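Sample A.
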Amino acid sequence: MRPRASLATVHRPALALAAALVVLAGCGRLTTEPSISTPAASLAEPMRLARSGETTATLLRCTDLVAGAESAPESLAVAVAAQDEVQGELLRLHPDVVGSGASTFHGRPVIVVLTRREVAGLPARARGRACVQMVVGDVRAQSYYCGTSTGTSKECNAGTLGAIVTDGVRNYWLSNWHVFSDGLATAGTTVVSPGRADAGCGASTVVGTLSRYVTPRFDGSANTVDAAIAAIPAGLSVSAVEAAGSMGYKPSGTSVNPSVGLEVKKVGRATGLTYGTLSVVNATTTVQYASGKAYFTGQLFFTPMCKAGDSGSLIVTQSGNNPVALLFAASTYVTVGTPIAKVYAAIGAHVAN
């Protein structure tokens, strides 16, 4: 069985972002699962952020750099636009630069340079926008039900059944590709609950049939979604499973657009009900899978909310239970999710009212 790294410590920041920007931690699938003894509250320590005085190297020519702060707050969109222009240059600066994002710092829009560890000499500004550094570590894919343990019948793994979704004709379980397939299962393969890693790698109860999925590419091209759905068989009673994983709430059929500072929660197989904050939008990052490394764009980074085995969890707003993202990856510092609109479009199904 292939081991999966569990999420643990988070460094404390040198500075804090105005919109409560903190280090994120995400979660995914697992083939072996350690016992969980860390209380959920300890998963929300703030991120480590490099001091602006340390980011002295120039990405652009000195004549392109602008000194001083903006005179008035601006829309986060200006940082997203600048980030999109320079993210390729940022990735080439240093091997430990793993991606980029956009957020707010001291009330101003900034480009966030995502690094594996602290890197000296990153640019203070790019395209007229201030740059800050966020250490996110190595982001890895992980996996398990509506908060209940699940997995493919083809592998001893475990992840999370995130929600029940519909295409208007029938209902499906929503999770990740690396939970329901992982390259071993194809359409028509059964998915089980609990995941076989939680059943001693033996047989488990069939709760669905793999229907549609999006397989990440490992050739360096950009990915946007790691998602899969499994048709719920006729006659299967899902009320008990749904209630066991829901921790007292059901997702709303109305999703919301992601915004920095949004307070969220999720229910996962490994850590149950945990809370967090959306810190970075439009993030680019490389995710380590058992199959290799996959490059993702347009992702969301949240404060730590999970451990290995929580992949496939649906991230919703703390107030209203509105879907925000599908959790699929993590590092020791960050929780990574795909905007739910991208997921709905990719799998052709959505949470119903």
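Sample B.
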Amino acid sequence: MIFMEYDFSKQERRLGKIVFALTLDRKKMTERIVIGETNETRRQLEDGTGNIFYDRTRPLGKFLIDFETDTGMEWNRNAMTLRESYGKAIPLEAARWKMAVPVADFLRGKYASGEPSALFAAIRTWEEYLNCFHLNHGADMLIRRLSALYRPFFLYGGNRTWQEEATAALSKVLREEEAAVELWYPVLKRSFECVVASASFLPLIAYYLHKIEEWGFVFQKCKVCGNDFLARSRHYELCSDDCRKKQAVEAKREFDERAKNDRLEQLHEAAYYYWYNRLRKLKRGEAADLEKAAAVGEAFAAFRKEAVKRKSMVKRGEMKLTDFSSWLVGQQNEVDRLMGE
């Protein structure tokens, strides 16, 4: 599906409000995010015909795990540049637009990242810039609105508090003006409720965390790739089919390696005792033959040294196990020959 591209050089605001719509599917363990104007987002959710900027279905928890992080306060610095372009010292509109060009470039980069929280914030930033452009006290209004939009990037994104006491932490920082969301109930082909926000991500995060707690799901770290993922319980240790396949391949490799090493030790041990028992026979009893025992003992010492060397080669992959086995059989024939002389 081809989505609309947002124009960060346009100088006229849109008539419709840009919203971030989120639906969660507990059974399939997926999340769906749609970003667009309100009416177009509704159409997209109901029959797939909306002209929107983003629509993706991803593994459940992805929104929280990959949420935009801004510990360096880049978003705020760019917001201050937009605010300064409203100043009385810059009376000409052309000069104001020129000041906003580097910010537009920054927003284009965030939009192109494909991360929905960054993409949505980029669109909303430019929309708010246009909304406040000609208003009295527009500079202060712009900063208030963008501050509410960006706060989760360092309150939530930087700290990842969702792993422990996220709900309690959010309740302490969530301001009343940031708590507003719409809940679109199932209608027509839309089979799930949809939570929709525009001013702040915090209520979306709170909603998401509440659902995770209600369903009893937990965040885990994948044993194969090391990435965070949302699981039905602590018993799930792998994040995807790819990681399950990789684990199966590695498990088979380890099994084959253990089996090879076990077989290697068995072959080596059997050959060792084959020699040992024959040498022992030459040294004991009435039929003892010390002269022959000395010759066999010398050959046995040479065999042990060479066997250790070749076993190490098998372990390093420099010799096949079958070749080592054939050599051992040959050495057994050699001690039989020495015994018969």
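B remarks: The chain has two domains: 18-231, 243-340. The mean pLDDT is 84.
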